[in-house]
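Morning!

As promised:
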Amino acid sequence: MSQTSRPQNDLRGRIYSVVARIPRGRVATYGQIAALAGVPQHARQVGYALYDLPSGGSLPWHRVINAKGQVSPRSEPGWVGFQRELLEAEGVEFQRGRVDLGRYRWEPADSPGV
DNA sequence: TGCTTGACATAAT
DNA sequence: CATTATGCCAAGC
């Protein structure tokens, strides 16, 4: 319609949906999330959207990391370690403080069982 | 309405 | 590998 394709709410609502689709034991990068949301240029907005995440939300934000395979330093130190625990609890292994994207990177619409 | 900020990405140095 | 610079664009004030 005139309002064009109104996804759901805003980019954020879209990003949340994509993040919620990340399977357990897998991780995705901000750029990936943005791309899946249909806006590969908004990798930053992805992080910004997660920043607005409601506490107690069922969103697996901890599965979202940066392209370096590391969790993004939020504001205060120690927060990163927390995210790392959540990932390890899901079966994601950390090598030298970073995740092996070559193995844990989430492949949407694929990876039937490589 | 316009400037500032920002959980990023990529390339170059 | 670390740091710097640029791009890209929405949300907040």
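Residues 17 and 37 of chain A are 8 Å apart (CA to CA).

Hope this helps with the figure draft.
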